[in-house]
Design a protein that fits this description.
With about 170 residues, the protein is α/β, with parallel strands linked by helices. About 35% of the residues lie in helices and about 20% in strands.
């Protein structure tokens, strides 16, 4: 009997989470992107204001796909915030894309874990699918020219010096 779409998606998500949980955060490093172009991104924040890749031209941007129920995502958020603050004097931005959750749920999370970067909402997970997100968190480093340079699947300490140097070198 064929597996239902939701069961298959659940198993895929579980496999992605297990991969994330097994990564050594201290030894992890960004991976060069060789996957070609990904689709443009245009999503709304909790107030309905849309932002997208076209708005970030000229900046290096980390786009992080995450969910509040994902423990590695929750652990990673403070380091993304430290990275944004550390690079605040440069043309740089962090954008968090929450996948599949209501803004109210995310607001409860950010009361406990405040962040200074924008959070956009992919309520139907369509953007995550187009961006080939296979586990959470998944992050992409986009250069000022709009091309993806690096990606990472799993929890990463974005405030580590080697990670910051890699991001600063993106031109």
């Amino acid at each position: 009997m064929p597996e239902s779409r939701s069961t298959a998606a659940g198993r895929s998500l579980l496999a992605g989470l297990l991969v994330c949980a097994s990564l050594d955060v201290a030894a992890a490093t960004l991976t060069k992107w060789t996957g070609g172009r990904l689709p443009a991104l245009k999503l709304a924040d909790a107030d309905g204001r849309e932002q997208g890749t076209a708005d970030w031209r000229g900046k290096t941007v980390v786009v992080n796909f995450w969910a509040t129920w994902c423990e590695p995502c929750r652990e990673e958020m403070p380091s993304l915030d430290r990275l944004r603050k550390r690079l605040s004097n440069k043309p740089f931005e962090v954008i968090a894309v929450n996948v599949g959750e209501a803004p109210e749920r995310v607001a409860r999370f950010t009361r406990d874990v405040p962040v200074s970067f924008p959070i956009l909402y992919d309520r139907d997970s369509a953007t995550a699918k187009r961006w080939q997100v296979r586990g959470y968190p998944t992050s992409y480093v986009i250069g000022p020219d709009g091309r993806i340079r690096y990606y990472f699947v799993g929890e990463l300490d974005w405030s580590r010096d080697d990670v910051v140097r890699t991001i600063e070198a993106v031109r």
